[in-house]
Amino acid sequence: MFFKTLGKAVLVAAVMVACDRNRVQVTDSGLKYQIHEQNEDTRKAKVGDIMTMHLALKNSKDSVLRDTHKEPTPLKIMLQVPPFKGSFEEGLAMLSKGDSATFYVSADSLFSRAMQPLPPGVTKGSDIAFTVKVIDVQNEEEYTKAQSQLRDKQKGVDEKIIADYVAKNNLGGKVQKTASGLHYIINQPGTGPQPKPGDMVKVHYTGKLLNGKVFDSSVPRGQPIDFQVGVGMIIPGWEEGVMLMREGAKGTLIIPSTLAYGSEGSGGVIPPNSVLIFDIDLLNVKKGPAGGPGAPGAPAPGGAGGAGAPR
C-alpha cells in the first residue's frame, strides 16, 4: 500500500511540475512565454553568444510561418541586445543549451521596429509564437574554434569527393590544384591581362552541383556580371579561380565546399557541404582604382546577384 500511495504521489507531483513548466508566464517587460524544457545546470545565453537552434514561427491562427526543422540546417544567430520591450531576444537570454520554450511577441512591435508592414496572415494586435529548441550556446571564441574544426574535417571529405569526380569524368590530365584545395581546368587560354586584387572583371558563368544540376547561370539571361576581385565580394573559390585566368579565357572551377557555401549551403538551392562546379568565361579585366582593394571611390560590383556570385 505504501508503494502504491508513493507512486501516485510521485505521478501527481510530476504532472504538477509539467503543468507549471508549460503555463504561460509574463516578464516585467510584458513578454509572454512558456518554458517546455529547462536545464538549470548550464549557463544562460549572453549578448554576443552564438546560438544554434531550431525555430518554429506561428501566427495567432496557429498557421506555420517558418519551421527550421524542415530546412537543411538549424538557425544560427548572434544574440543581440533586445531592440524593444517584450522582444524575442529578451526570451532567448532566458535559455541555455538543451532548453525549449515558446515566446509570444507582439506582431505590431516586431514589424514596426523593422519598419515593415504586417505580412499576410499576421493581424494587427496579434502575437507571433516563437517556439525554440536550443541546440548549442557558444561564445565567439568557442564558435570560431568549432567552425575551424568542422572545416578541417570537411576538407578531407571534399578532397575525396573531388578525386572521385575527376576519376569518373577522366579529367586527371587536365585538372590543376592549388594549395587551398581549389581544382581548375583552363579550357581555352586567354591572351589578355590577368586580374589582380582590386581589378574589375566581367564574366559569364554557369554554376552546377556535382550531379550536373544547374542552380544558376548568367548565360540564358544574356547578362554577364561585373565585380571587383580581391575584396571578399564573392566566395573564396571564385575569387581565387578568376585570378588564375587571363582575359578571354574559359575555365572550369571545381570548388570544395570549404571555399564555397560551407556547412550552411545557400538559399535552399545549394545543399550544405556541396562541392560546386563553375564554368567561367572571363570576358574583360579592367584595372582597379589606385591604391588597390577598398580604395576610396572604388566602384561597386554591379549585377552580382546569382547564387555563385555573392558570399
Question: Can you give a write-up of this model?
Answer:
It comes from Nibrella viscosa. It holds the Pfam family FKBP_C. Keywords: Isomerase, Rotamase. The chain has 311 residues and is an alpha+beta fold. It has five helices and 14 strands. It has helices spanning 2-22, 88-92, 107-113, 140-168, 236-242, and strands at residues 25-26, 32-37, 50-58, 64-67, 75-78, 100-106, 127-138, 176-177, 183-188, 200-209, 214-217, 225-228, 250-255, 276-286. Strands 1, 2, 3, 4, 5, 6 and 7 form a seven-stranded antiparallel sheet that branches. The chain starts with a helix and ends in a 25-residue tail after the last strand.
List keywords for this structure.
311 residues; alpha+beta; seven-stranded antiparallel β-sheet; 5 helices
Q: What is the structural class?
A: alpha+beta
Oligomer: single chain
Largest sheet: 7 strands, antiparallel
Individual helix count:
5
The fraction of residues in strands falls at 25-35%
Care to give the gist of this entry?
The protein has 311 residues and is α+β, with helices and mostly antiparallel strands. The protein has helices at residues 2-22, 88-92, 107-113, 140-168, 236-242, and strands at 25-26, 32-37, 50-58, 64-67, 75-78, 100-106, 127-138, 176-177, 183-188, 200-209, 214-217, 225-228, 250-255, 276-286.
